[in-house]
Fold these 2 entries.
Entry 1:
Amino acid sequence: MYTSLPALLVVALACPCRALWPIPRSLETGSTPLVLAPDFRIVGLRDSPADLSSAVARSQAYIRTDRMQRLVVGRAEADRARVQDAMQLPSLVLSIPEGEGVGSIAQEAVGPLGTRSEEYVLHVPADGAPAMLAANSTLGLLRGLTTFEQLWYDLDGNATYTLEAPIIVTDSPAFPYRGFMLDTSRNFFPITDIKRTLDAMSWTKMSQFHWHVTDSHSFPLQVPGFEEVAEKGAYAQDMIYTPADVQDVITYAAERGIDVLMDIDTPGHTAAIYESHPEHIACYLGSPWQTYANEPPAGQLRFASPSTTTFTTELFAAAARMTMSSLFSTGGDELNLECYTNDTATQEALAATNQTLEEALNTFTMSTHGVLTKLGKTGVIKSDMVLDHNLTLPNDTVVIVWKSSADAVSIAAKGFQFVHQPSDYFYLDCGAGEWLGQDPLGNSWCDPFKTWHRTYTFDPFMNLSASQHQLVLGGQQPLWTEQSEPENLDSIVWPRAASSAEVFWTGATLPDGLPRNVSSALPRLHDLRFRMVQRGVQAIPLQPLWCALRPGLCDLQS
Amino acid sequence: MYTSLPALLVVALACPCRALWPIPRSLETGSTPLVLAPDFRIVGLRDSPADLSSAVARSQAYIRTDRMQRLVVGRAEADRARVQDAMQLPSLVLSIPEGEGVGSIAQEAVGPLGTRSEEYVLHVPADGAPAMLAANSTLGLLRGLTTFEQLWYDLDGNATYTLEAPIIVTDSPAFPYRGFMLDTSRNFFPITDIKRTLDAMSWTKMSQFHWHVTDSHSFPLQVPGFEEVAEKGAYAQDMIYTPADVQDVITYAAERGIDVLMDIDTPGHTAAIYESHPEHIACYLGSPWQTYANEPPAGQLRFASPSTTTFTTELFAAAARMTMSSLFSTGGDELNLECYTNDTATQEALAATNQTLEEALNTFTMSTHGVLTKLGKTGVIKSDMVLDHNLTLPNDTVVIVWKSSADAVSIAAKGFQFVHQPSDYFYLDCGAGEWLGQDPLGNSWCDPFKTWHRTYTFDPFMNLSASQHQLVLGGQQPLWTEQSEPENLDSIVWPRAASSAEVFWTGATLPDGLPRNVSSALPRLHDLRFRMVQRGVQAIPLQPLWCALRPGLCDLQS
């Protein structure tokens, strides 16, 4: 009556050995073992940009140090016999079309959405001939190198092998915006933690780091000409990102194929500016905070005041000049209008300019987004500003949909391009309990915890018409950091954030034409997680190891 | 209309500076600043046991390296003026009553529950006279040293100070069993991670490490005479605890005032034994697993078979001989009787012995607990075995109440001593989402996440009569590790597990006689968390730093 042990072994050996994440759009694999030659090397371009040479060196290092064993019963030992007499792969040769000079990865990565060339083809023959990786850009080559790194397993530290040659990959992302958002205001994250996160993002071919750098709790960004804001508004002098730090992050990210979207939240979520500029902030420490904000502390820009508008616009201009991206976010979430009802400065400003509060908000937003346009940047804003307020925004404004996945339809109806960041599918901080004091029975506002499988079932085109599909730029999983610091950054983000990375790279269907599904994804995600751990990212296990070694045996329905 | 900034500063300065965790039973503090003299030293006992000398050295080191700044706006800087001309404390002098030799901490810590002397008195005068720490045992001195370490803050690395001299502490725990349970079967934890956990436990004066060492997923314990069970049933050869490892953990724990309760789960949760002894295990890989277990894999001891009873009893005897504790757990949770309905071996054994399944279970349990009694150990068992089965258990058996806090009443009614481990208050793994495959909408079975404040509101005497209070030994927070490995051990355990540590040390009331409450606890728990981070334990933040610096301002109700 019970399945016998030999049957278990069959299940294990028949597991999907395609461990790539995200899975390429087109993938053909064979069943021939292949090992890397002792002198295996990756042959880069003759006139290689420095960042491509670095990427090649990183790939060579990962292939040498990953020491990843296959997730099957018996682990690497189970493959020994097949690997022993395998053909050797001598090299991987990179190529790019001849042309007028080769751009760097960084240049390609920070271009406007829709212009970045990420496609590549990869061929690993089974007969001992060199493997080939071709792309139209160095960014495409980087994506292909990332795929190549994931093909290899280790036996005893002596043999680096695949069991699936020949391998033919033709790949390109379904959506250009595949992101992760980190809040560095509620709690602070040193540069080294951000860089480690960027590394992990690049391993899943993410393209966008949304740096929610400031908020009400602290203002850790040193903006040239506005140094006092961070000096007074940061948590501490060693909890400030200097312009050099920002440059460091942007460059590090770009070299790994990631564009940095800087986000200075306004006009709400700005209490920290009070410390340096009390004249610009209303209702800081307004009591009770519940009347003036969704979480403590309350504090918002007096956007109706012309001097505050000037201050904010100049702050944005200075901050935007720190970035390389074509995108810049002015925030825009959870503006609380009640804050201004009894704020004398605001009421006087409205009277003086003869505007309603909504008109003043429009004036303010036209000014802040106007300066971005002038600097050649595309403004990014939260969906609240489009759905709850009647603002005049540039047509190319990118909207981040966050409150609910259902809001995407309303944004699309208004004709804006948008990024999916729905709290009901994507928020990494949900489910960790109430963090406010005096609430022993309280739960997370966006309970329950968003599992990787919940995220994975997200449909980017849900309820959209075919003509609206072009408005979907992609999506991202955010981490709001009320209860996070470097201590749990990796464990709360990885491997879960990889879930949406595959949703937006792979799109609706697997290479076989079957729809994406959690069953075939789980073994691959296990593999990615263990590889991340090998590389020093503290990604957490998704199941007991017993289950990771036996795909399907820990499913709810068998 | 808004609270002004000076008002905020008043709130910050008026914050409860008593940062001790758990808070002592009796505590008097003054308001005189005091700094440690440059040559400050802790004067130990003349004939000090080695583990007390080590404890003294650790305390001296922590005091030097904690570099903990007070959690107030302005941090240490806010205290500079008060610290500058403070009196100096030259030393802390330990003392113990003269008698027939001084026992080690380890000896005292592993004694039977109720016999361990943990009380101490600590006096830190404000006038520059030496501080005094007195206890009736070296274990009591260890508890006092732990309190002493938490008194000190750092200014610039030059001054180590308190603002609250004189300080008078008279302290002893409300309950002897203050524990943490770690499951090392679902996923494996190296010794180094267990030791780091023991360190953190000792900082909160916990007394019991419940090592749930084996379960269905893997059997990582090398038991002398039964080496084959781990050799085949562990996840890998480098994922085995050897007898030397176990000795190492037990000694390390005992020197830190912690007794190790070893737990080999039986007769359910034993699938891993199948790998070495298929003859003793029924329904391994029974399909579907839902019929035979609460989670995959199914697999249970054939407890009706005399040979299986002999095997298990001898295994327990050999494992119990590895331990120093007076306690040993035989497991006992989630036994699935359906497993045996079609198990030929079991049915034949029942027929041969002319017993019902329940009678056979009683025979089995009498044998396993009988051998523990013979070895001078007290058996520990899960509440299922008492509530769902009519077993003959020794009167001194300790029951772990886990399914629901409401079960304590039923256990007390049967007259057993018990340990609180209720899933509705204490489970650290709850709320992290479903881990089974093929269940994209599934949540954790014990949703929601158990916040520290939820745990903190637990009443150990809930619904018990006064005469039943003596049955309450204490409580513990468990970590079941379906989704945990070393990567998230610290972040999922700390600082939350400290919450029950205070519940069971401090009891119902604060030193002022007021009931324990989450408002006064939160600033102290923040302090503990930051101190843990300083000492290398990756405890997570409970709130944005803005809130940690401003007690009360992030409360739900103000």
Entry 2:
Amino acid sequence: MSDLRVAVLGVGIMGADHVARLTSTISGAHVAVVNDYLTDKAEQIAAGLPGCRVVADPLDAIADPDVDAVVLATPGPAHEKQLLACLEHGKPVLCEKPLTTDVETSLEVVKREAELGKRLIQVGFMRRFDHEYAALKAMLDSGELGRPLVLHCAHRNPAVPPSFDSAMIVRDSLVHEVDVTRFLFNEEIIAIQIITPSANPGAPDGVADPQIAIMRTASGKHVDVELFVTTGVAYEVRTEVVAEKGSAMIGLDVGLIRKTAPGTWGGQITPGFRERFGQAYDTEFQRWVDAVRHGSSTGNYVDGPSAWDGYAAAAVCEAGVQSLNSGKPVEVTMVARETIAGA
Amino acid sequence: MSDLRVAVLGVGIMGADHVARLTSTISGAHVAVVNDYLTDKAEQIAAGLPGCRVVADPLDAIADPDVDAVVLATPGPAHEKQLLACLEHGKPVLCEKPLTTDVETSLEVVKREAELGKRLIQVGFMRRFDHEYAALKAMLDSGELGRPLVLHCAHRNPAVPPSFDSAMIVRDSLVHEVDVTRFLFNEEIIAIQIITPSANPGAPDGVADPQIAIMRTASGKHVDVELFVTTGVAYEVRTEVVAEKGSAMIGLDVGLIRKTAPGTWGGQITPGFRERFGQAYDTEFQRWVDAVRHGSSTGNYVDGPSAWDGYAAAAVCEAGVQSLNSGKPVEVTMVARETIAGA
Amino acid sequence: MSDLRVAVLGVGIMGADHVARLTSTISGAHVAVVNDYLTDKAEQIAAGLPGCRVVADPLDAIADPDVDAVVLATPGPAHEKQLLACLEHGKPVLCEKPLTTDVETSLEVVKREAELGKRLIQVGFMRRFDHEYAALKAMLDSGELGRPLVLHCAHRNPAVPPSFDSAMIVRDSLVHEVDVTRFLFNEEIIAIQIITPSANPGAPDGVADPQIAIMRTASGKHVDVELFVTTGVAYEVRTEVVAEKGSAMIGLDVGLIRKTAPGTWGGQITPGFRERFGQAYDTEFQRWVDAVRHGSSTGNYVDGPSAWDGYAAAAVCEAGVQSLNSGKPVEVTMVARETIAGA
Amino acid sequence: MSDLRVAVLGVGIMGADHVARLTSTISGAHVAVVNDYLTDKAEQIAAGLPGCRVVADPLDAIADPDVDAVVLATPGPAHEKQLLACLEHGKPVLCEKPLTTDVETSLEVVKREAELGKRLIQVGFMRRFDHEYAALKAMLDSGELGRPLVLHCAHRNPAVPPSFDSAMIVRDSLVHEVDVTRFLFNEEIIAIQIITPSANPGAPDGVADPQIAIMRTASGKHVDVELFVTTGVAYEVRTEVVAEKGSAMIGLDVGLIRKTAPGTWGGQITPGFRERFGQAYDTEFQRWVDAVRHGSSTGNYVDGPSAWDGYAAAAVCEAGVQSLNSGKPVEVTMVARETIAGA
């Protein structure tokens, strides 16, 4: 199967990240087209990617027959028109949140896709793909915790851009917890209340920060969310489900913590080397592939342990086996590295 | 730059994992050739990969002009001959540990590569690429902990195959801590002692498990390693450096824990959303690309939040902003999903 | 100074605990009088305590000239009358919560004590004395966290008696968090809302459990409390302060966890042996004193490590010092214990 | 039963701590006699304790008919003679470690006590009374972990007095782990080796710090201890038992952590309020008793929440119950505190 030819619309911070991701990390796709209202930015990015063109008009990029799929990282107000174009041309699209900037146009997009009879639009609520959220969801779906009752969330940013206002805390921060709630509980939210405690002295003038959101789902589950975007500390996203048979937390920087009968708390130990070191193997291979691809120009096809490292390990293990057999300390015998030119 | 054409020699558990990794995860490379002494196994794997051939003799695979690089996942005793062939044909090779099965042949391989004057051999000590080990190494290199003095390691497996013997605990388990020691301390190990406490009742007859390895480095640093391969619990790999100005531990399932003056312990909070959710974005994109590539046969180009999810989030946030402005609870207004056929 | 002669009124579960505490743990006081409306219970407890009498009427006990101070562990409805009697006779009183069962009588008690011009009444909000709450309070008072903004609490019981009703969750559970809020923030609570999510299937019929309390303090700080008294798991009391310069949590079974700039989380390591082992010393001494006091009847004046244990330690350390000097393993030389009759 | 009259011999840092402990914390005993070779120090301490005398000669103090029991906090070289005197006069004695300063005299003391036919000597290995060690011991004795195999210990001090030498690390620090090993495993240590890595740059000249002790018990269990007394960080005492069915650790500042099948790690949640708040109740009562005993001079018989605190809690809970019934936010009604003079 040939690689997917993707058009990335909008190459600001987020879009540029996605270009890099599709180029260096994702298998089976490459960036064929980039577009941005800042043409220079688009040109600059395309210049670094062999086989990537700039298309000046986002609608042209969507219509382009040599584009198989679209990533939307344009500003929210542009989404409606671009999403409808994707639907019109039958192009699958991964759309950064928000879908659109208001409820009516969002509903319109939903209806138009439904009329087409095939699903083309995915929205970028990436938390559903985070391994901790996935583990929490799996735990809930397994029934281990029984019926969920309450969800506590905290969403803390160290700082926000100067233009941030009170409503953006709802639209840009809370929106993630809205999706998390719907994802974890498989039901809609039917009521919401925003509480504004007296503000953090460090928040910009006039911005109500922190805020507390209180939500209620269709079946009566309670959700509370602390939103605090000027903590000065770090990026903390924490989620705790309290359920009929126990509770579970993620986001404490220590993996999923469960508290279940009979009175213990704790997490999971990695069951095997694949789970523990899967990331290490992936990184090792990617860095090796990259080194080999550039090897003809550098003369070095290695980015990691060398043959010498393999030799040294063999020498120590050899001595170890001798000690195992004799029960006595053993000196390690190795040639001096400098006696081998080039090693 | 065109994709690297890789030959994977040996497609047992490890080699098959690497084939999958190169195919679905790694960018810039694909598996062009597979080989195994079990020909059926190789045929079966090649059949699932478009453009992948079986080559019956591993040395032919190495010599093949349409192979750019080699992954060695064959049994250890085959490594020497295959590595020398890679050197002869100038093929970069990623060799699963051990380099070779004894010290003399390992040294021979080192010398031959040194004579070539370019580095072609990388050994698969993957822990150097693990994010916790990398963080620990970075911390040591930064000088924050001062001079390292002692290294405590534990290497625990829940179980091992029936054929495991006492020396394999040294050669196959301890070998990783040998490399970790050399990696973290940048110096050679000069002496080793293996202590065998009374054995775990659950260990196979005659196998000395657990074992304690005591090592000393050139500059006099002490390393101890608990090796215990029949714990029945889980896979635990723990490493603690004790240094002049504090200590740091990894492998407690809670990230890197540092203990430094003035008397606090703790870890790092994720500084931003890229660090916290980078993996989520990667997974999101890979799954979306995969869904889109198969969309023409399934009619579904989405594997994640749908347009409806975007609409629902918009509706809740809209109500949230109303509550923010009014200070009162607000009901969420949404159309019923079943009124839109296909949504 | 002679011991305080205390009257304990009410010797149910709580009162009986307090009798034991005053007898075996607290220095400088003993139980001189017990009283309970179940006279048998009181008689039984008094019989086990040399010098302790039963007084049938609680008001007589309060008035008794041989009673220096009173502990009130009677049911709440009895408190008003008994507290007023304590004030009348000038007797210091430690009163289990609630002060009285309604606001008007509580205020009356406050006024009567104020008229006396000396403080005689202490209320049993024991959390203020818990080392974690004390550490959290000290941290807030130190200014390290800046201005507190939000308080998140959880109060979970594994189960409650069958007679528990929805209002008791407020009066008997929430009351502790009410006091904790006032203690930590040094200000009054000015508004409260109780939210009742759909109930835990395991809660008794008609009992709204869990409940969420939302409170606001005079200066606008937000407090939320999850109250959940039928979790089936364990007793969990958790408190997190979110403040201008960071946050801190207690009750995660891991001591006080602080999250402060620049992006780290963690706790305090015990600074010295007194802090680490103070409890051990106290327990050691109390058990030794108890053993010695009963030694004449048992012939054993020891409840801990014996002379033999001291000898064995000396033998090992002696060998250790030899090894330190020689750099070689040393066998430990000890006589066989059975060669010394009675050792 | 009347209070035990205790003679404390040696009132340096440790002895003075024990005097305070017996006076303010321990129930059923008081300090009747103090002694120190620095007579001024003894006089000063006795002056602050009603009913406490100085006795100039420690042997006179032991022989004193008005002394029921002895605490030995004198220097180690004085122990032998003083312990033998305690045995001669039949006085129970709690002796700070070491029992005596060499193996021969320790054995002599053991024999003399054995001849008496009653146990009078307890040695101050206080770790056996620490709640974490007690929990670890209980876990081992329960059989939950199966047969113990390996013990890893770390003993770290931030700093030591200038006079500290290499042998004191064995005699004064390791001695605790020697006793812990014997306590946890119920068997003797039969061999020991001290390893001296290259020294911490911050250690005093000529002091071998850190040291690694390797010990073997009678049944073949392995014990290793890192001893490091100039860490500059904090006081850390850590112990991990690795056993047939899992492992358990204490001393990580997070309580006992167990790792047992099927692959989870974690701790225990406090089962109930007595376990969670027992210390708080004890502290509450002790501070209340102390306040009441001094109340006649201060006019204040309270050291904790006041009647006003009880009233405020009642007012908030009253409003809470109204909100529970109405489902609406409720303002809290309270009188202003300043309207009640003296409240």
